[in-house]
Amino acid sequence: MSADLSHGLEELAGLIHFRVGAWHDFGYETPPAPNCKAIPPLGERTAQAIKAAHTAMEEIDELIKRLHMLRARLVAELRQDSDIRGQRTDRMLADFRARQPPDISPDPAAPDDMQETAQLLDRLAPLAEVADLLKRHDPITELRDLFDRIDPDGDL
Fold first, then answer.
1. Which among 15, 32, 66, 150 is placed 20 to 30 Å from 106, CA to CA?
2. What is the 8-class DSSP label of residue 151?
3. Mean pLDDT, each 10-residue run in order, the chain (156 residues)
4. What DSSP element (H or E) covers 124?
């Protein structure tokens, strides 16, 4: 893993904030009190204020560049993470299917929820709790919860 691209972004944003303040000659758009100065009008800024504005633009360009690099890395890492998770899921499903008896075949004419219910019931048939689940309002959710309790790691 290479360097953390997010390191220093907050400090750079703080510098930009300071430089913009210098461009405004540390004045207020609407001074909150009589002893607070207003932002000088354009054409009347000091050389230091102009230099601060140029430096702020360079720092903004650097910040944008670093943010784009960070975004590109995050996109790449998220895609890689998704691929790794997908491969692990595929292996787990293949292992699970390899352990299942070949006679699990719900009625192909049944709706998908019914097929899933039939598959879950076939897997959980030896358990006494199945009878109680069938009495409940939403057997699919209840069967999933039961399956999660039986196999909390999701290895099956």
1. 150
2. -
3. 82 96 93 93 95 97 96 94 92 87 61 68 62 56 68 66
4. helix 112-124
Given a contact cutoff of 8 angstroms between Cβ atoms, the answer to whether 133 and 143 are in contact is yes
Angle at 99 between CA 96 and CA 101, to 5 degrees: 120
pTM over 0.70? The answer is: no
Q: Are 6 and 74 in contact (CB under 8 A)?
A: no
The first and second tokens of residue 120, run together, are 């879950």
Ramachandran area for residue 12 (φ above 0: left; ψ -120 to 50: alpha; else beta) = alpha
Residues 6 or more apart in contact with residue 25 via CB below 8 angstroms: 37, 39, 40, 45, 46, 49
How far apart are the C-alpha atoms of 152 and 156, rounded to whole Å?
9
